[in-house]
Amino acid sequence: MNITKQQLIYGTGLLLAGLFFGWLLFSGTADHDAHTDYDQLSPDEMEQHIQEAHTDEEGEIVYTCSMHPSVREDEPGNCPICGMELIRARADQAEVDEDTYSMVMTEAAMRLADIQTTHVIRGFPEKQLDLPGRIKVDERRLTKVTTHFAGRILETKVDFTGAPIREGEPMATIYSPELIAAQRELLEAARQKDRNPRMYESAKQKFRLWEFTDDQIEEIESRGEVQRELEILSPVSGFVLSRNVANEQYVMEGSIIYEVANLDNLWVVLEAYEEDIDWISIGDAIRFRSRSNPGQNFEATVSYIDPVVNPGKRTVGIRADVNNPGNRLKPDMLVRGTLRAGLDSEKLMVPVSSVLWTGPRSLVYVKDTSVDVPRFEVREVELGLRAGDYYVIEEGVEEDEEVVFHGAFRIDSEMQLADRFSMMNREPGRGAVPVHDHGDMEMDDDHEHVDYIQVLPYAHGEEVDGVTEDFQNDFLGLIRAYLDGKEALLASDSEAVGTAFQQALNELQSIGLHRMQSDAHMLWMEHYETIENHLNHITGADNIEDQREGFRGLSDVLIEAINSYGIPGVIYHQYCPMEDASWLSSEEQIENPYAPDTMLNCGEIIERVEN
Question: What is the pTM for the complete model shown?
Fold first, then answer.
């Protein structure tokens, strides 16, 4: 078949057009030059335009990675970091300055990494607190019935715990030699009351101090003879919470024989975590419900906040008074309370997912809207209170600036790989993290695989003075519960994750704060609080992705803790730059808990820890 010159030119034009539109698709530069009318370009002019858009100052074509724009190569191939195929870099990418605290990305990289931004907002922070607690007896309505003299209980009128009783009803009968003598004095004083009224009144006062009623005293006088036994009457109405005597039991003066509580009014005592205390004030309204009546809400008002923190649970007691008509609420009943609180002044706020929190340092990535090419700057910020899905920012950002709320970890990973200031790299210039082998991806011949060395994305702790063997053994229990949680994450079993990390929280609380001396004690106090916060995040999360986010922070602090304290046996620190996440494993085999369905074997062994 003969090919005419016209057909050849037409085919060449189609080929060049295809190359051009492919460039548009993969480099994300459809709007690269809004002033160029591509429809008016000839095939030769179009090819020249494409070449100029992808060449450096020397005229050489530059190739980069859509996920890692810091990679700059002079020939096609695969990315030495993630193995993805390199694409042509745009010439205008080099026009935006990068420094230790910023990173430029292509539009394609933003789409692949799913980078999303939102504005810093100013508003009144609000938060809903969900507080566990239980119903308790109002201590002001609890009465202890005691004996005021030694004697023997002849008969118990109230013979079981929980019995209802009214004020003035008999509780028991008692025989006492002291009581016999007092009756004789009263009868003698009654016969001489006209001549000596003060002695008569004194004899009656003794019985009143023993909590006998005027009716009982008059009965003794009317009979005119000593009674062998007298009744002990209930001083209040309520329910018998405790019965401490039986028939024919001998009691001493001051013995507590019954405890009676009025349950018409009760306390609901809720537990608030330390970080939530600033949100709670006396007078706040609380709504709560019990397990027995999940569909019925009760209302109460905060009347008291404990002045001290429970050292075991790291919580503060919040108390509210509640009426209890019909005795629907029972002491020791478990309840769940809800408190909505807000601040009186406006604050700057960003989404929780925008903040990369590493303890004392918190970072956000701010988009530079003054340039056309996506550029992100890392900022250290001072965090305030957490208000639901937002953090209050006290310092570090301005209103209406754009911060990354989805994909911040991916940008931070790129900053880290480029040896720039990032969450885990506080000292840029010490050497970037080496190349990562991404599973089945094949590397170009010019980019050999490089193993990880001890230039790590985490600052390794050094063993500190004061660590005890007992602590290491107990700390191992926490790590075992953590490893169970990692296995549940691999199976994407949210319920099993919650169970495992609740056990980890129990192990942490059983370890306690005060286990070591010297530097180890001071360091463990910091680690304890951070570990507890991450465990509370995981156990309180309602989906697997939020649990993985908490697992990420927990893994970071446990890796540091293990290097500081050591544990019996061997454990592996593993890491995947694609997720920018580390974890601990008891096995050498890589099983990535962050992306088990898509990147199960993505990762490297960073370190083998053996004590």
Answer: 0.49
Residue 23 has pLDDT above 60, yes or no: no
Number of structural domains (the chain) is 5
Q: Is the per-residue pLDDT at 356 higher than 50?
A: yes
Instruction: Judge contact between 566 and 611, C-beta under 8 A.
Output: yes
- Where in the sequence is the domain holding 308, given as residue range(s)? 267-342
pLDDT above 80 for 58: no
How do residues 530-579 score in pLDDT, each as one tens digit?
A: 898 899 999 988 899 999 999 999 999 999 888 888 888 889 999 887 77
What does the alpha-carbon distance between residue 563 and residue 453 come to, in Å, rounded to a whole number? 16
Question: Residue 296 has what pLDDT?
Answer: 83
φ/ψ of 4, rounded to 5, equals: -80, 160
Same domain, 547 and 574: yes
Structure tokens at 387: 């208000």
Q: Is 225 exposed, middle or buried (0-12, 13-18, 19+ CB in 10 A)?
A: exposed
Q: Residue type for 565, please?
A: Y
- Give the chain's end-to-end CA distance (angstroms, integer): 78
Tell me, what's the pLDDT at 374? 86
Q: Looking at the structure, do residues 354 and 377 belong to the same domain, yes or no? A: yes
Looking at the fold, whether 477 and 600 belong to one and the same domain comes out as yes
Distance CA 528, CA 560 (A): 12
- In the numeric block, the tokens 């009623």 are attached to 213
Helix H or strand E segment including 76: none
